[in-house]
Design goal:
The structure is a single chain. This protein has 357 residues and is of the alpha+beta class. The chain has 12 helices and 14 strands. The protein folds into 2 domains: 200 residues, no CATH class; 133 residues, 3-Layer(aba) Sandwich (Trna Endonuclease, Chain: A, domain 1), CATH 3.40.1350. 40% of the residues lie in helices and 27% in strands. The protein has a 10-stranded mixed β-sheet with strand order 5-4-3-2-1-6-7-10-11-14, with helices on both faces. The chain has a 4-stranded antiparallel β-sheet with strand order 8-9-13-12. 34% of the residues are buried.
Length: 357
């Protein structure tokens, strides 16, 4: 896929903020690759989570989009590669057990296409430990309503500069995910979707633990002398919806940048879903514009609860330690209980006498 074709498509459907969010995902994929096989083999690109209008909660489905355009001749080989990938089987099986329908979506065409909206799409459903092709036209015909494609806005120069240096194969993966959602589901199938979210990625440990992740580019701000970060409340709920049925944990990763026009890179930081649940402030604040065009709500979270990211973070030992959501929550609650008891006991007592009738 040519860079100009990919970038032009994204400019037509999204503004600078969304485009910058995709770049953070691309940079993280590059970081994972640089960490080497022990980390890279455990990482999987994310998926769209969406449902038909009127069935927001009980008909959610996840759609994984293949990372590159395949020819009709090469399609079966790509499907066979999925079938033989034990990690991806584990991921798909876990999503099914979490109550989702699971699909893998292939763009069919050639890498020289100039109009990405003309790509054909072939969908496979994951079921009973196998992938079976479905009739996408008939499948989406039962989704009610009519949708429309989003429109873009002029990008900031710094956003355009970031896209000019992305690895082409990563750029193709990012764009195809957007083409599936905007050109296929919304434009060709003309389907509105309820409450759509894109899960940015997953780590799957060798023992089969699933950890979904959210990736953002952010810088901290200060309030009442405390450094904080804003986290989209909807993203927290989305991670919890995946994690709770599986008793797994989620990861929130930020590409930290300076609060300056240059947005110089500072480093990768990470916290876990259990830490967000236990440490975030409960007062919601107004956020930016969400995927459906409406305003979002954010919670603030202490910057000090983020830790530095390195390859060891994703060792099997580390993933195992983080992965059992309920146990980690209970451990944190015990620590908090000890802390609040010490605080109460250290306060000057109003009276040392025991109350009696």
């Amino acid at each position: 896929m040519e860079r100009t074709v990919a970038v032009s498509y994204l400019q037509n459907i999204m503004g600078s903020n969304k485009a910058m969010g995709l770049v953070a995902q691309a940079d993280f994929q590059k970081w994972v690759h640089e960490c080497g096989g022990n980390v890279e083999r455990k990482y999987f690109n994310g998926c769209w989570v969406m449902s038909p209008k009127g069935s927001t909660a009980n008909k959610r489905m996840c759609f994984f989009v293949h990372e590159k355009i395949e020819t009709k001749e090469a399609l079966q080989s790509a499907v066979d590669s999925l079938i033989s990938n034990r990690g991806f089987h584990g991921l798909c099986g876990s999503m099914v057990r979490s109550g989702f329908g699971v699909f893998h979506c292939f763009a069919i065409g050639n890498s020289n296409t100039r109009n990405l909206g003309d790509l054909e799409w072939t969908l496979y459903r994951y079921r009973n430990e196998n992938f079976s092709q479905i009739d996408a036209q008939r499948f989406f015909s039962i989704w009610p309503g009519r949708g429309r494609v989003g429109r873009g806005a002029t990008w900031d120069a710094r956003v355009m500069d970031r896209y000019q240096v992305l690895d082409l194969h990563v750029l193709e993966s990012l764009v195809l995910s957007q083409v599936f959602f905007n050109s296929f589901v919304k434009e060709l199938m003309k389907k509105p979707v309820a409450d759509p979210y894109d899960v940015d990625g997953f780590f799957v440990s060798y023992e089969g633990k699933i950890l979904p992740l959210e990736i953002k580019e952010k810088f901290p701000f200060e309030a009442n002398r405390v450094k904080l970060l804003g986290i989209d409340a909807g993203r927290i709920l989305m991670l919890m919806r995946i994690c709770l049925p599986l008793d797994c944990n989620g990861l929130y990763i930020i590409r930290e940048v300076e609060d300056s026009p240059q947005r110089r890179f500072v480093g990768w930081k990470m916290t876990t879903l259990d830490s967000i649940v236990m440490n975030s402030n409960w007062t919601l604040q107004a956020g930016g514009i969400g995927m459906t065009g409406g305003p979002t709500q954010t919670v603030t979270f202490p910057y000090g609860c983020f830790s530095d990211l390195n390859a060891q973070t994703f060792s099997d030992e580390s993933l195992h330690r983080m992965s059992e959501f309920s146990n980690v929550i209970k451990e944190k609650a015990a620590v908090f209980q000890d802390g609040v008891e010490r605080f109460i006991e250290s306060a000057p007592s109003q009276s040392q006498q025991t109350l009696s009738a």
